[in-house]
Amino acid sequence: WVWIWFDEVPEMTTFIGGLLVLSSVFYGIRSSK
């Protein structure tokens, strides 16, 4: 059911989610140095 839910997710929500992930990774890299 997870994949079905992902298929029904709007592109904007996916974009925002991806942006949050990228920002979290970037922040993690900055804080680790």
UniProtKB/TrEMBL annotation:
Organismal lineage: unclassified sequences, metagenomes, ecological metagenomes
Residue ranges of the TM segments: 12-29
Alphabetical UniProt keywords: Membrane, Transmembrane, Transmembrane helix
Protein name: EamA domain-containing protein
Transmembrane helix as UniProt keyword: yes
